[in-house]
Specification:
globular; mainly beta; 5% helix; single chain; binds fe (ii) ion; Neuraminidase
């Protein structure tokens, strides 16, 4: 390439482009990987392969780059691959950036007007023998879970007709049912929503379409035994704005957050809209229902957290400023009143949660997350400035009390989203390990930390040292070897 990457926050410090695909066999281990851990920790994040056509880009615009830690018999190997999207192929062929602003096709190079814009950089989910690299504005790409070879852009064999699919589907552990949705389901900035479910073999079992209260971002969903919930956030799309070359999303402080609830298998007339005051619903910990009362746990930020999607006056939160309330919402499905009732579980600035996957949609006790703890020290002289998302703590939270068992990663480090791996398929809830990447910012490299989920404050039982830096990723999942087989 003949154009250098910009020195903007998106491309600085640990978030400088990495771009190196490869395999690392037998990573160096401090401590001991628990011998019962057998599976793969997959994650993905944006790693822009070419300098942006527009001169700079927001961090969500990078090409999907998958990391797969294969753990077996106390050893760990790592595989790093780009998702070979149509977009990345086109840019490699041209040897330059061809795609314009985030989710704004009007700013693309003439030569790629008919090339799919998917970056597949937000989550990697294993289902029906395929690893799906997902981002919410396009359909996923299917990868081979062993080789990470990109197979095809995936529409469940043409069964899914929406123009996009969430990066946060939910899977019922017992049945293998896979539930997800599309917003902007008839094209960018449209107000159409579609919900889909597929059985464990990938056959479509449910599909409904309806209109959103406003054309906002729906980043996550939750399922309970009987319902699906879509939290609508006041980040609003505008086709007129992107036609002018502007930003797709604009924060709207006058709009409610809306929790869209539909009974599983229901039709469009069954959909209900529960309103709550303006705030930004985050990632789902879990949901469950009991006698018509539907509970949803998730961190809620009291203001916009995306500095690259400002409000109409250009006001945005400074990078590194971050606060949430981990909230349990109750929706009374037997009451016609459509106000959502919140109960704040914790005021820790926690995000990127997982529950024990075996309890998705069921009553449960534990959430596993990372947090940005401002009471802990940070050494910018050694670790560099904080320029983007920043977290410094892994934790297990008792969701019934909000009590957190925490581990601070150190004053020159930062964390990435942790996942949970049970000790065995039959282990009690929470009896297992939290795995998460730790960026050693002063050493320009990363570790994979493995902690006892019920004893986080003791620190890692194993620290797997990488000779390379892994950029800040977005989401991932633990897939046990039994599921891959
Ligand atoms: Fe997400």
């Amino acid at each position: 390439m003949t154009t250098p990457f910009p020195k903007s926050p998106t491309f600085s410090t640990i978030d400088e482009p990495f771009r190196f695909e490869g395999d690392l066999y037998d990573l160096e281990i401090e401590g001991q990987i628990p011998p019962e851990l057998d599976g793969t920790f997959y994650s993905v994040g944006p790693d822009q392969a070419y300098p942006p056509k527009m001169g700079d880009a927001n961090p969500f615009n990078g090409d999907g780059f998958v990391r797969a830690f294969r753990i077996n018999n106390g050893f760990c190997d790592l595989k790093l691959r780009y998702v070979m999207t149509d977009r990345l192929r086109a840019e490699r062929e041209a040897r330059r950036g061809l795609f314009g602003e985030y989710r704004n096709r009007y700013t693309d190079d003439e030569s790629v007007q008919n090339v799919n814009r998917a970056v597949a950089n937000t989550n990697v989910v294993h289902h029906n023998g395929k690893l799906l690299a997902m981002k919410e504005d396009q359909n996923p790409y299917a990868l081979d879970p062993y080789t990470l070879e990109t197979l095809e852009q995936y529409t469940w064999g043409g069964q899914m007709e929406a123009t996009s699919f969430t990066a946060h589907p939910k899977i019922d552990y017992e049945t293998g049912e896979f539930i997800g949705y599309s917003y902007a389901a008839k094209g960018e900035a449209t107000d159409d929503i579609a919900i889909y479910s597929f059985d464990k073999h990938g056959n479509k079992t449910w599909e409904i379409w309806f209109k959103s209260p406003y054309p906002g971002m729906i980043h996550e969903c939750a399922i309970s035994e009987n319902y699906i919930i879509l939290p609508l956030m006041p980040q609003v799309m505008s086709d007129e704005r992107i036609r002018r070359g502007g930003i797709l999303f604009q924060w709207e402080p006058s709009l409610d957050q809306v929790y869209i609830v539909c009974p599983k298998g229901g039709d469009a007339g069954d959909v209900r809209f529960f309103h709550a005051p303006n705030a930004m619903p985050g990632h789902v910990v879990n949901a469950f229902d009991d006698n018509g009362k539907l509970y949803l746990d998730l961190p809620v930020a009291l203001d916009n957290v995306f500095w690259f999607f400002p409000d109409k006056d250009g006001k945005f939160p400074p990078p590194g400023s971050f606060g949430t309330e981990v909230t349990r919402w109750c929706f009374d499905m037997n009451d016609k009143n459509s106000q959502a009732s919140p109960n704040v579980i914790s005021t820790m600035a926690a995000e990127f949660p997982h529950c024990d996957d075996r309890y998705v949609g069921k009553p449960y006790k534990y959430g596993f997350m990372q947090a940005s703890d401002p009471t802990q020290p940070y050494n910018p002289e050694r670790a560099g400035p904080i320029m983007g998302f920043f977290f410094n703590t892994f934790l297990t939270m008792d969701m019934s009390t909000g009590k957190a068992d925490t581990w601070f990663c150190g004053d020159t480090s930062s964390t990435q989203e942790p996942v949970f791996a049970p000790k065995s398929a039959n282990a009690p809830e929470g009896d297992g390990y939290v795995l998460g990447i730790v960026n050693r910012r002063d050493e320009n490299r990363s570790d994979l930390a493995i902690l006892d989920a019920m004893n986080m404050s003791e620190g890692p039982v194993a620290n797997i040292k990488l000779p390379v830096r892994l950029k800040y990723g977005i989401h991932g999942n633990w897939v046990p070897a039994s599921a891959l087989a």
